[in-house]
Write a structure and sequence with these properties.
This protein is of the alpha/beta class. It has two domains: 235 residues, Rossmann fold, CATH 3.40.50; 39 residues, no CATH class. Helices cover 40% and strands 22% of the residues. The strands form two sheets. Strands 6-7-8-3-9-10 form a six-stranded mixed sheet, sandwiched between helices. A four-stranded antiparallel sheet has the order 2-1-4-5, with helices on one face. A hairpin with a 2-residue loop joins strand 9 and strand 10. Helix 3 crosses helix 4 and helix 3 packs parallel to helix 5. The radius of gyration is 20 Å and the shape is globular. InterPro entries: AAA+_ATPase (IPR003593), ABC_transporter-like_ATP-bd (IPR003439), ABC_transporter-like_CS (IPR017871), ABC_transpr_CbiO/EcfA_su (IPR015856), Co_trans_ATP-bd (IPR005876), ECF_ABC_transporter_ATP-bd (IPR050095), P-loop_NTPase (IPR027417). This is ABC transporter ATP-binding protein. Its main location: membrane. It is found in: Cell membrane. It holds the Pfam family ABC_tran.
């Protein structure tokens, strides 16, 4: 049984604009799934179906095999947590601590459990020093972390990140990448994210969906997606820097194995050039 499954999911705005068209999507346990596509491809609209913010015009959305209904919507929203692109939409309490406690409080948890969850996510995200700060005084990267902390405090099984690198500096992007990579194994979470920052896809994702005009036009592993250069070019998408560099080296006759993230690229470069630079 899949954590999330959509079957021919279609969503129409204003009766004549199809934001989603027959989308078939699957997310399993402990996966890291990237959804890439240009602005207007339908990524955010798809995300809003995952916890019932939007309802399908036609087709189905199943969470752990069950459709979203009025009777289970609260449980669904415990299971599926969404961090929106604009952190200001989610960060609004007088202090960071109160903001993080907002979700667990609404779940009706006791004071001790709420305190424990708040302390835990402050530690996980390394923002304990922000505990008593007003959110509106924080930087964009700090607000992003607080927004993520507020969702994590509800202990979802699925974390949805809509353009999580928007507004982050390079250090913030690196910290986010490291954090997301810990979630499946350490906390058993599935992470689904969209991004225009294509290089983090190769560092985080183990499966990729490509969207265009409300449809899924390709899906697969990094190798299966990033070797479709003509498709990506047509969609105004790029491939990550490292595989692009390796491809150029191969075209110049250098015997180097293709790789898609930093760790595997380092191994490829050392094997290809290590002896030369000993």
């Amino acid at each position: 049984m899949h954590l999330i499954e959509t079957r021919n999911l279609t969503h129409t705005y204003n009766k004549n604009i199809d934001a989603l068209k027959n989308v078939n999507f699957i997310a399993g346990r402990k996966q890291r799934i990237a959804i890439i596509g240009a602005n207007g491809a339908g990524k955010s609209t798809l995300f809003k179906h995952f916890n019932g913010i939007l309802k399908p015009t036609s087709g189905e959305i199943l969470i752990r095999g069950e459709p979203i209904t009025k009777s289970n919507i609260k449980e669904i929203r415990k299971l599926v947590g969404i961090v929106f692109q604009n952190s200001d939409d989610q960060v609004f309490s007088p202090t960071v601590e109160q903001d993080i406690a907002f979700g667990p409080t609404n779940l009706g948890l006791d004071e001790h459990t709420i305190e424990h969850r708040v302390n835990e996510v402050l530690r996980i995200l390394d923002i304990e020093d922000l505990r008593n700060r007003p959110p509106h005084h924080l930087s964009g990267g700090e607000k992003k972390r607080v927004a993520i902390a507020g969702v994590l405090a509800m202990e979802p099984q699925i974390l949805i990140l809509d353009e999580p690198t928007a507004g982050l500096d390079p250090r913030g992007v690196a910290d986010l990448t490291q954090f997301v990579n810990r979630l499946p194994e350490e906390y058993g979470m599935t992470v689904i994210f969209s991004t225009h920052h294509i290089d983090i896809v190769s560092e985080i994702a183990d499966y990729i969906y490509v969207m265009d005009k409300g449809q899924i036009v390709a899906q697969g592993s990094m190798e299966e997606i990033f070797t479709q250069q003509e498709l990506l070019s047509d969609l105004r998408l790029d491939i990550p820097v490292l595989p692009k560099l390796i491809k150029n080296l191969q075209m110049h006759g250098i015997d180097i194995k293709m790789a898609y993230n930093y760790e595997s690229s380092e191994k490829s470069f050392l094997k290809a050039f290590g002896k030369k630079y000993d």
